[in-house]
Write a structure and sequence with these properties.
By secondary structure, the protein is mainly beta. The protein is built from 1 helix and 10 strands; from the N terminus they run H-E-E-E-E-E-E-E-E-E-E.
């Protein structure tokens, strides 16, 4: 039929697509060309992350026909793009971050920093720009 020749198949996006999350959690819902639910979220080893609702995320497709999908990452915030090659910058809501710099220093930012267990620091520790001195209280 002539109408069937008028409908063009969707362009192949390769093995990935950009989507927007609709359901947050360990298994997320994402809209790419349509909504897909219960997608697993993957990240680098040792890194745990759950995308927020409405976040732009990378959906990786695999398997025969690309029917197996997972969420692999999100667009970085502008601040995260200014790091040097080889450095690691972890950030979360509210301006909290951990910055591992190539000079060997570590910057930890947060409204409150808690320590679980025993605190052991090798090197120089400064708090609000001043050398740390434990309280002898």
């Amino acid at each position: 039929m002539w109408l069937s020749r008028q409908v063009k198949p969707a362009a192949d996006t390769g093995g990935a697509d950009l989507g927007v999350t609709t359901i947050s959690g360990q298994k997320v819902g994402v809209v790419t060309r349509g909504e897909v639910r219960d997608l697993p979220v993957y990240g680098p080893g040792g890194y745990l992350w759950t995308p927020a609702n409405g976040a732009a995320v990378l959906v990786v497709k695999g398997g025969p026909g690309g029917e197996e999908q997972c969420v692999a990452g999100t667009r970085p915030q502008e601040e995260a793009r200014r790091i040097e090659p080889g450095e690691v910058y972890l950030y979360g809501p509210g301006g909290n971050s951990v910055y591992l710099k190539k000079d060997g220093s570590v910057e930890i930012r947060g409204s409150r920093v808690s320590v679980a267990g025993e605190l052991a620091v090798s090197g120089r520790l400064t708090v609000n720009g001043r050398p740390y001195a434990p309280c002898g209280c």
